[in-house]
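Revision sheet: structure tokens.
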Amino acid sequence: MVGKNYINGKWITSAKGAQYDHYNPADLTEVTGSWPKSTVEDVQVAIQAAQNAFIHWRQLTVYQRSEYLRKALSLMRERLDTIAEVLTTENGKTLAESKAEIVSAIKEMDFQINEGLRMGGRIMPSERDGILAFGIRAPLGVVAVISPWNFPFNVPARKITPALMTGNTCILKPANLTPGVGAEFVKLFDQAGLPAGVLNFLTGSGAVIGQALVENPAIKAITFTGSTDVGMGIHKAAAIHMTRTQLEMGGKNPLVVLADADLEEAANAAVLAAYACAGQWCTSTSRTIVEENIYDEFLTLVLERVKKISVGRGTDPQATMGPVCGKSQLAGILDSIQKGKAQGAKLIIGGRQIKEGELARGCFIEPTIFTEVTPDMFIAQEEIFGPVLSVIKVRDFDQAVQIANQVKFGLSSSIFTKDLGKALTFVEKTDVGLTHVNMPTAFKEPQLSFGGVKQSGCGLPEAGDSGVEFFTEHKVAYIKYR
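Predicted:
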């Protein structure tokens, strides 16, 4: 397959025609597609197209804009299976996980369309007679959407829908590892008849086209999901032009298990959130923090479940965990495992790349658990973004909360307990943007905001009513009528 950019309503090659190949992470001998290595010139053309389209798009009523998005949403439902196959081929996750991601994208998009219809201002009383005072919301202009490879369909749906509903025009830059999924997303809008230039799509190097988007003053907002290091670089570069940023970044998410917890449910939640999508969730459970008097029992339950995980190609109906998404991810995860062993953590299961049979051609890692982990170790502090779980033993609830917060990240957390007082205290004290009680760390719904604190997030969060808020600016009017 030869992929193309989408600029001003047309699928076109890059200005210089250079391409890069993408390989199936389940079989690195398989090229899934060839995609444009876009240039700064391509970025400039896309920005100009979006600027031209903005003039008309912003003048449509929100109901008129919603009709285009509803058509795209209808096509999304129809093509769920086809899109899921592309997602599994590029990312590696199982078909069941790919379908679940598209279902979640449908929910996100449906909510944001309706939230956009509610976009309005406020009429406030004036201190003077005969004056009508009110506030309204106005679109920003051209916005850049830089999406990740781990949820390459859900995240664009969550970001682009409120951007378009509020009257902005967009440029989508997908991750290099999942360009085809991004193209599938854009095709829905193209076939829904979205006016030319309203949504544009560029593939290529983040260091080239991502930087060109961030540094261009014509870009009025940047919404990014990815690593903390890249997000911080975007924030610094965007500050030069006071460009608005929305950054959803890394996590080191703890699941705390207290002595009174339902250990079966806690083990289910830990294994689900640690190993689904091969541990490549921003909100995955990477640390379980367990009270010492139930530590052994809990660990036994987790081990029983991890041993039942079936690693295989995402297209294999028997597989429950696919490969990690590419050679660089594979190398980084294996390096983190080596650091864990070198610092004295005990590897009790997994920890190696699978090199037997046909899986040897892909990026498959065994589900991994470390015990005897101390809070200062690399594997307890840094985001690994793979199927690696660290188990930390603590004396009591207070120490559990202290260790849970003792990282630079603050995205998601969870606690398992039957003690309402401790549950509410944890909700109050956990330093995250998203927390849970007796639930996996990865649970979220579209009606509430999604984002982190500390080095996990910056700017307004995504989803909920934050989408409309981020993509609009406030305008106040005073009208003297007598």
